[in-house]
Structures are given as C-alpha cells and as structure tokens.
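ERR on first pass: missing label on line 2. Operator R.T. fixed the label and resubmitted. Corrected input:
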Amino acid sequence: MLHTVNKSPFERNALERCLQYAKKGSAILLIEDGVYGALKGTAVTDKVKKAMKNVSIYALYPDIEARGMQDRAIDGIRLVDYGGFVDLVAEHRNVHSWL
Amino acid sequence: MKFGIMVNEGPYTHEASDTAYLFAKAALEKGHQIHRIFFYHDGVNNSTRLTEPPQDDRNIVARWSKLAAEHKIDLVVCVAAALRRGIRDENLAEGFRISGLGQLIESGIQADRLVVFGD
Amino acid sequence: MSETTGGVEMDEDVSGVVKKFLYVNRKAPYGTIYALESLEVVLIAAAFDQDVSLVFLDDGVYQLAKGQHTKTIDVKNFSPTYRALEGYDIEKLYVEKESLEARGLTTEDLIVPVTLLPAAEMAELMDGQDVVLSF
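pass 2 clean. output:
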C-alpha cells in the first residue's frame, strides 16, 4: 500500500499516524507541506529514520525545492518527481491520502 | 493503467489542485489514462470560469480546461457541493460538467487506482 | 438529476464489479464540512452494491458522539444519519480504540453500535481495501 502525507509534522499528526499504520513493505510519499517530515536535524527525524527500516519513504522533490529545503533531505529518503509519484501509485494496489 | 482523481480543495488557497494537476499531467505523459477527475468539497471552485488570477500567476481553471480538451478528460463537479458554493452551469468553465456523487463511486469502480488530493 | 445527490446513474459496465471501498473519517464535525460531505458520499455509495466500510480515527470519532445539538450554531445536525446507515446496508463501522480512549470516550458515548479495533488491526483493514477515500 502507498500512503501519502501532505501535512507538516509540526502542525498535524498525519505523519505520526501514517508511520503507525504503514505496514512493513509499504511505501510513504511525503508531498506538499508533508515534505517537512523528510528533513535532517528536526524533532521528527529519528522517528522517520526508524520507520525507514520497515517502509520505503519517498518525498516529492519539486515540493522540497519549492520550500528551499533541497539540501536537507534525510539520506535514504528517495526523492521523486511527479512521474515518480505516478509510478508509486501504479506499483501499489491501493493508496491512502492522510489528509 | 487507468487513474481516477479526486480534488477536494479549491484552487490557490491549497496546493492540492496544483499537485493533482501535475500528477495528472505526469500520468498522461507516461501513457496512462485518466478515467475522470472529480471535484468535491471546495474543489468545485476549480471549475468557475469567473476566475481571474493576476497575469504573472498560473490560471488553474484554464489549465484544467486545456488538459481536458487535449486529452479528452472527463472533469466532473459534484452537483450538491457545487450548488452550495454557487457553482452552476452558467459559470462553469470549458470542459467541466456538473453531475452526481455517483460519478465518483463509478470512478472508484472503473479506474485501477483512485487518488485523493485534499487538505 | 436530483438537486441534493445528483442522482445515481450507473453505466452498464459497472454492474457486477464489487470492490472494497473504505471511507476514512479523521475530522471532527461542524468545524469543517468534511464529515458531512463524506457522509453524503457514503449514502450514494450504498446504491452501488459495493463492499463498504467506514473507519473513524483521530477527531473523526467525534462525528459519532451522542448528544449533538446544533440549533444554536444554526447548522444541521447530521449525526442521526449515522443511525440510518444500517437501512442502506452499510453496517461495517469501525472505530479506532486508541483514538476513542485518547478523547476520554467509550462506545457508550457513541450514537451507533461500532466495532472497536486497535490501530494495528485498523492498519490491516486499510491494507486490504481496493479504494480508500479520505476527506
């Protein structure tokens, strides 16, 4: 399953809940303000890194770049463009947007 | 693959419309089909032809109309949500049509994937 | 086309296909319209003979709270509609145990009978769906 998160982890609990729900082998894509959850040196970095042992985490690069955060992504988070977003949706049998 | 898309937020206030549009465009570029784009909640505001953004900004409504014309995409605006928000046939932009929520469920059934963009 | 629902017109190629639809409710009622308009989708979905489940987590559990009186805020109280879902053959309502407890509520405080599931089981349920709609 693919999960998408579009909220900053500092404003809402969407990322936290998503990390709890994402089963081993599933994928999480951070988009829009959700990309703030993909960054190094934040209060949620450790939590995200820990989750990366069981789930694949991706972030939408255009949203990272738009916010000036291009050099801050956690190593191991895969950066994708909109085409990559499409591929992720196609590769997983269902998708849940954590709105 | 056939994608269904749901847009739940209005243009300009929230990035959801932009993300949905860029997703749809990328999907088409990759040779996928867009079964339908369904506009719900404040998302119905994506369909008003009265929209007039400043010259240096993207025209979100016109962008949808163009995408629909070029790729024959079905842009459906939920009637109940639209009437609540003053969207009617009279102010509907090119390429959009007003119909019922059944169109969303149908898209969920017929498309291989349904992706929701919202707040 | 009916003004409230837009009517339900089914294409012929839709009949016979049964998919698992999950409606995820994570938002409280009244503060925003999401809960109400989500319920409107569910009512229409009932006409399509699909396998429908509703889950309530986070502030979504407040949608089911008993004793909602909305007269003074001049908004329609739509909570009785959850009780009508059974009549539409929508009987799979799941509430996340952790969300309910975090809000100091129990199933006694809810207007409809629900199945209480811990987050881990909810995750399983979500994983097994064909279409997941969130609002």
